[in-house]
Amino acid sequence: xxxxxxxxxxxxxxxxxxxxxxxxxxxxxxxxxxxxxxxxxxxxxxxxxxxxxxxxxxxxxxxxxxxxxxxxxxxxxxxxxxxxxxxxxxxxxxxxxxxxxxxxxxxxxx
Length: 110
What we know:
By secondary structure, the protein is an alpha+beta fold. It is 16% helix and 21% strand. A hairpin with a 5-residue loop joins strand 1 (2-7) and strand 2.
């Protein structure tokens, strides 16, 4: 089993088990972390915005154009921002650090 280290909004670090094959959104929610995922991983919101530690970011696959479009709507966007629903945990990501942003923006239309 691999692990991820989430840095919570208050700066607290929480290490969680992270089974390869699950998205970072699923892993965060399974561990009770405050990550909304309003669109349930369908790539139509930015509420699972996460900030990847720079040394880990370069190991990730490139974001799709669709993910980049959704990231443009994220609050507190950084150059290492990604959507947790689009990152499927890999065994070699063991120990990766992921910061949860201080705020998210839910742009849901009614």
